[in-house]
Amino acid sequence: MKRTFFISVILIWFGIVAAHSAHNPFFVGHRHQVAASFGIGTNHSYIISPPTKFVPFTEFHIAYSVPNEFFYFPGRMSINITQTAGWGDRYGWYWSSYSVPIMYLTQDIAMISGRRWYAGIGAGAGLQWMENDRIGSKFIMTFRPFIGYRISDRLALEFYMRHFSNGHTTDNNYSYNFYGLSLTFNF
Question: DSSP label at 152?
């Protein structure tokens, strides 16, 4: 039983890889991509936070990406800049004190895709401008599941959940979590 399950998982994985190796759904033949995103914060510390407990905390994000493959999955490597912006307090946190710029590198992969849609995950690491009592380190890691829809070969919309934390490298690691929408442009 265990052997059959393991072999099935391996065959499915190779089938997904073979189906994806022919094209990159992020770029559709183009070599460069820029993205602009806006997200709303939640007060959760989970790596995948539920879409509840929204707070007065937002993110403005830009990225430049190029195509690549990651273990035969179509991917994109990106240089990212995020500016968080908070105001007021909620759930015991004063959100304006976490308004910081963050610069980081990420690797995204498209795990499944169709004619106009795709879904995947991304991860990366970088630095925030200053440490604070929410994330007690300048070092920051990010994780992002997303679903994308290609409007055309050049434009796509992506719905995402972004998680920032320090990977438990310090005692303070309450994370920043956002739900948002990205617009990507290929050229």
Answer: S
Rounded to an integer, the average pLDDT of 168-184 is: 94
Q: Is the Cβ–Cβ distance between 127 and 103 less than 8 Å?
A: yes
Q: Select the CATH number that applies to the domain covering 2-186 from these four: 2.60.120.200, 3.40.50.1360, 3.30.1240.10, 2.40.160.20.
A: 2.40.160.20
Tell me the per-residue pLDDT of 3-47, one tens digit each, with 9 for 90 and over. Answer: 666 565 665 655 555 554 558 999 999 999 999 999 999 999 899
Of the candidates 94, 96, 92, the residue with the CA atom closest to the CA atom of residue 84: 96
**What secondary structure letter does DSSP report for 28?**
T
What pTM does this model have?
A: 0.87
13-35 b/e (C-beta count within 10 Å ≥ 16 → b): eeebeeebeeebbbbeeeeebeb
